[in-house]
Task: inverse folding
């Protein structure tokens, strides 16, 4: 096999779809907690969403991520695997050897950097749709504020309309609102995603086995996801707030301004809002992602071997 392989992209696409289905309800809860100020704790947020919007409220904005995050994960896993493989070959390490930490780190950083190109617009649309709640008009608002919010409520009829509206009113750069915060979240975040997964898989795999079992992949993927999302929470809060900005108002000038305003108004604890949901959500999402990825990759390569014969 050559250094560049498309198998990882295909398997990443399938894995990405599985992770969205598993994780979207808690992702909605996480976004509401980070951006809104009236939900309190995680349980209260879940109960409020269910009471006001029923079960469908947890799946707001899922159609777009289901289609796009599959492509996003395809790129992330494809770029990571091919970069890591290329570096091993460059450093004259045989493909049968365990990946070197330096290879894993560089490949993770490259994947995190590239991911923002696709993930930025996807996250923006997802968050804008998730933040469109029905009962948010308050009697304490001024006439202008109420009118602005009512207009905003009519803005996004769906993912395509949301993209069109953002491009029309905020320009091309509006689609990449929060990209700086996303880079600061994803570059270290993917290091704490792929490296723990690889290390835990190797640790769980017993002697005599060249590949980890599905159960080991599930456990390693889940733990890696919980670690990555848990530690990424502070910058995830900043990213979510910047991307949600423009739904009701435009108050953040950038990453530093968002951090400053959030800290000044709500204290240090605001940056850890949703950390529990992030960690809990990260486990099943990443477990499903890695397991589906590994099983799909195995099936694709087995099919290729059969066709070659």
Result:
């Amino acid at each position: 096999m050559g250094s560049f392989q498309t198998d990882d992209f295909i398997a990443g696409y399938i894995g990405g779809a599985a992770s969205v289905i598993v994780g979207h309800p808690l992702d909605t809860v996480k976004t509401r907690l980070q951006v809104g100020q009236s939900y309190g704790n995680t349980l209260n947020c879940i109960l409020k969403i269910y009471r006001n919007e029923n079960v469908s409220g947890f799946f707001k904005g899922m159609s777009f991520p289901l289609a796009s995050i599959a492509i996003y994960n395809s790129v992330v896993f494809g770029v990571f695997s091919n970069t890591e493989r290329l570096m091993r070959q460059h450093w004259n390490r045989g493909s049968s050897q365990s990946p070197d930490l330096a290879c894993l780190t560089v490949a993770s950083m490259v994947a995190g950097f590239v991911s923002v190109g696709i993930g930025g617009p996807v996250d923006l649309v997802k968050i804008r749709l998730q933040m469109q709640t029905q009962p948010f008009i308050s009697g304490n608002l001024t006439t202008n504020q109420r009118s602005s919010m009512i207009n905003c409520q009519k803005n996004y009829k769906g993912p395509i309309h949301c993209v069109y509206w953002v491009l029309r009113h905020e320009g091309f750069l509006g689609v990449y609102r929060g990209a700086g915060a996303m880079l600061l979240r994803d570059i270290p975040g993917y290091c704490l995603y792929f490296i723990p997964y690889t290390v835990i898989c190797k640790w769980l795999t017993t002697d005599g086995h060249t590949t980890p079992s599905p159960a080991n992949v599930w456990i390693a993927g889940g733990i890696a996801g919980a670690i990555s999302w848990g530690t990424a929470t502070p910058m995830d809060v900043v990213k979510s707030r910047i991307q949600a900005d423009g739904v009701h108002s435009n108050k953040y000038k950038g990453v530093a301004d968002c951090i400053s305003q959030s800290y000044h108004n709500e204290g240090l604890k605001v940056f850890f809002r949703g950390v529990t949901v992030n960690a809990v959500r990260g486990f099943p999402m990443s477990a499903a992602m890695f397991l589906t990825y590994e099983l799909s990759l195995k099936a694709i390569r087995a099919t290729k071997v059969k066709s070659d014969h």
Remarks:
- The chain has a mean pLDDT of 83.
- The CA atoms of residues 262 and 270 lie 7 Å apart.
- The first helix runs from residue 7 to 35.
- The radius of gyration is 21 Å.
